[in-house]
Amino acid sequence: MTRSTHTLPAGAGFWVVAIVFFLAMSYSTVPTPLYPIYEQADGYPVWMITVIFAAYAVGVVGGLLLLGPVSDWAGRRRMSLIALALVAVAALLFIVWTEVPALLVARVVNGVGIGILSANATAHLGELRARTRPKESPVIAATVAGVATIGGLALGPIVGGLFAEFVDDPLFLPNVIYLVVILVCAVAMAFVPETVNAVAGRGRYRPQRLVVPPSSRSAFGVAGLGAFSAFALLGTFTTLTPVFLVDTFGDRDHLLAGLTAASVFASAAIAQAALMRVALRRQLTTAIVCCTLGLVAVAIGSFLPSLVLFVLGGIISGVGVGILFRSAIATAGALTDPARRGETLALLFLIAYLGLIVPVVSVGLAAEFVNEQAVMVVFAVLVLAATVSAGVAMRRRASA
Predict the structure, then answer these.
(1) Which of 42, 96, 166, 377 has the highest count of CB atoms within 10 angstroms of its CB?
(2) For residue 67, which of 28, 103, 101, 114 has the smallest C-alpha distance?
(3) pLDDT per residue over 118-146, tens digit each?
(4) Long-range CB pairs of 201-204, under 8 A, 24+ apart, other chains included
(5) Residues 287 and 145 in one domain
(6) What are the record keywords, sorted (predicted)?
(7) What is the pLDDT of residue 276?
(8) What whole-number distance in Å separates Cα of residue 373 and Cα of residue 363?
(9) pLDDT grade for 72, boundaries at 50, 70 and 90
(10) Same domain, 186 and 303
């Protein structure tokens, strides 16, 4: 496919897609430190925060399954623009309507946009990189996509915390600024080279198929457990940390709440990039150790309570689950034929996003009836058991 005179070179387009993906992902977690403000303004209970967060995950799953494959024949650039339009609509909803029904709708719409963009941008990055550096390992493009995802999720709570701490109207201004940012991203994306022939490649619509490798069901189950537990930890820290800091530690610093949530994502992203070239078996050993130490610290910090231990435990366990999630992707991808790999990985991502929904909502509901400290301790123990079991099983398979 020849480059149009109105598009960027493939190399520049690669970085435009990466930056747009990073910024769109960051908007997903901007509300994290703002949830206590929404809670105070509307008077809804803690469990409603987890439902609002779960609405986002439901939207992501819907976007991945129903619209994720469309870019294979409709075009990467076109679907990215549609995804950004949906994110912009979500920002508008946040601006004009802040009651619970609007928050639920806005989070679902935002999730659908991110679900489309996640599948599409990852493929687009790989194809653009292959044009400019055809002999380079695809791991590089995959790592850029991974860092853009987790790094963006880390930036969002910091931005939200800064606005909550230093701006008079933190429920309005961040959404206005991000609306402008998303529109600028859409303009930039319009000049990125297309990598799919949208005419010759056009096909009949079908939802994303989900495939379990028939000869490796148990191994895939282990990878799924790792992905589920990793996202359970990330989702719980994103959703409940701000409220937990207020109720347990008496700390109403919104910036601290944002930094605490961001630190977990940041440690996961840094670990993924730093250990990219390390053998899978060693990565999994690191993940097991970090999950154990980190989640024990989270449990002790919740029980005492100790803010330092709680935050430190989140950072250390973030390293562990970041490695664990990347290892789960590598394990699942290696289990199936390349022609069916996308379908297998789609199922893995579905399981991962269920980890954002089920445990997070369960923790939020339990906190309505049981002491929040006890809920966090039990949660830490369960996630510790799941992450260590998955890590040990995947490490054993990597050694075989």
Answers:
(1) 377
(2) 114
(3) 878 888 998 899 899 998 877 788 778 87
(4) 201/72, 201/73, 202/73, 202/74, 203/72, 203/73
(5) no
(6) Cell membrane, Membrane, Transmembrane, Transmembrane helix, Transport
(7) 78
(8) 11
(9) confident
(10) no
What whole-number distance in Å separates Cα of residue 268 and Cα of residue 273?
9
The enclosing domain of 123 has a CATH number of 1.20.1250.20
Residue 204: inside a domain: no
Q: For residue 48, give the nearest of 287, 326, 240 by alpha carbon.
A: 240
Tally of CA atoms within 13 A in the half-sphere of 129 that contains its CB: 20
Which residue has 């006890």 as its token pair?
374
Domain that holds residue 251: 211-400
* Residues 321 and 378 grouped into a single domain: yes
Structure tokens belonging to residue 369: 């009836």
206 falls within a domain = no
Tokens of 368: 């309505």
Contact indicator for 58, 108 with CB cutoff of 8 Å: yes
| Spatial distance between the Cα atoms of 307 and 159, rounded to a whole number of angstroms | 22
Is residue 230 predicted with pLDDT exceeding 80?
yes
Q: Are residues 173 and 215 in the same domain?
A: no
Lowest mean pLDDT among 215-219, 224-228, 293-297: 215-219
- Tell me which DSSP letter residue 133 carries: -
